[in-house]
Amino acid sequence: MLPLITEPEELQKHLGDPQLLIIDLCKPDIHAQGHLPGAQHLDYSNLIIGQKPAPGQMPDTDFLVEVLSELGLDSDKHVVAYDDEGSGKACRLLWTLDLLGHKNGSLLNGGLHSWAGEDRPLVGEPGPAPATTDFKAQPDNSVIADKNYILANLENPDVRLLDARSIDEFNGVKVLAVRGGHIPGAVNFEWLSAIDYENNMRMKPVEILQPLMQELGIEPDKEIITYCQTHHRSAHSYIMLKAMGYEKVRGYLGSWSDWGNDPGTPVE
Question: Which of the following is catalytic: 2, 107, 112, 228?
Answer without folding.
Answer: 228
